[in-house]
Amino acid sequence: MTSSETRDVADRSRWKALYLLCGGMLMIVLDATIVNVALPAIQDDLGFTQSSLAWVVNAYLISFGGLLLLAGRLGDLIGRRKIFLAGLVVFTAASLLCGLAQNELMLVSARFLQGIGGAMTSAVILGMIVSMFPEARDQAKAIGVYAFVASAGGAIGLMAGGVLTQAMSWHWIFFINIPIGVAVFLFATRLLDDDAGIGLGSGTDLPGAVLVTGALMLSVYTIVKPAAEYGWTDTTTLVLAVVSLILLAAFVAREATAATPLMPLRVFKSRNLSGANIVQLSSVAGMFGMFFMGSLYLQRVLGYSPLQIGAAFLPMTVIMGTLSVKYSERLVMRFGAKQTLLPGMVLILASLLLFTQAPIAGSYLVHVFPSMVLLGIGAGLAFPALMNLAMSGADPEDAGLASGLVNTTAQVGGALGLAVLATLSASRSEQLVRSGTADLIALTDGYHFAFWIAAGLVGLATVIAATVLKQVAVPEQQVLEPVLVDA
Length: 487
What we know:
By secondary structure, the chain is an all-alpha fold. It has helices spanning about 5-45, 50-55, 55-80, 80-100, 105-125, 125-130, 135-165, 170-175, 175-190, 205-230, 235-255, 270-300, 305-335, 335-355, 365-390, 400-435, 440-470, 475-480. It has a single domain (about 5-205, about 260-480), classed as Up-down Bundle (Growth Hormone, Chain: A). The two termini are about 30 Å apart.
């Protein structure tokens, strides 16, 4: 075999590995939203109360969001492939337990375990992609594929959840993970190169691990439980928020003085890494909040079934996927990541502003479809570019940590967005009902208020992106190439 043929084989192998990693990521991302559609069926079958039902979602969010940074750093230390495979085993086994659950305790416990496996699997994927694709053009294309899976998976989950729950039963939203998890594991052992990591001696910071995991878990718990149920000014909410901030401050102090820090503070010296994560935190809070509140608007105001809700989000998913997979790499290489990001953010903002005008007797084609199209285009442009900017500021030895940080800000941003928008929307609707407003009008107005808040969060992210992020240099020979469409 000639050297050219050897390179071609190696190139095909790494693209197969990319699709494999994205398949694992899709399984994780789907699970975060697919459960929402099945919650009523789970409640009827297992006898959950309305308040305890939230823990089917919250148990997963707390362990997933809390462990992402730790899992990402462990990937740097002992090998990302090892963490990825171990996470697949935990996630798949936990999915089986979820599907077999016969009572509340078993399902909530299995969901917590599932979150641990999801964190281990997803935290290292972006770092592995950056290592596999060091060339600028290939890396941009690979991150575009990953970004589509990571950002559009939530919308796909709404549709998949509706299909599985209506056609079979809620148990299958978990059972479906088992053959996928087994297949991904078997192919991963063949396609993913083993990496030794930089060694536990380079970062065995147990106190730091305890502090950051405790801070993140408590932060997510505060967002999804007391803040969502009792409000942001409630004493319990404030106390837990202060404790989580104290733990986070103690972690930063520990990392500044530790001989082998779990998370070297040098990573935050990168303006793009720090800025991109702030942008993602705010934009995901607005966009994923819109997914949830938009679903409620379609269900409670327009009377859509779960399957119809999934179909309503389908145009956005298709557009986002087409842009992320086929065009994002070309646009980033032609115009630069920042110049691709900003128009995308503006389109996401425009989509949310349109949703604030959706009426009670709204038409899908007139009042929903245009927003879905704008959101699909905006997210398809913005998120691949944003991930390119975030990872451009990370050194190779910190790629796993940077990957975990990107995933952490996305998950915490999503949880924050859901909690804030749901709380404010409900409070607005309740206030209007008490003043004598008809229920449906009050409900719609509450959703409009949530969409305005979401638009504000995305607008803030856009301003930060425009003022903080720096353009990443693009090789001149690649800038001059035209943007072509594959035949």
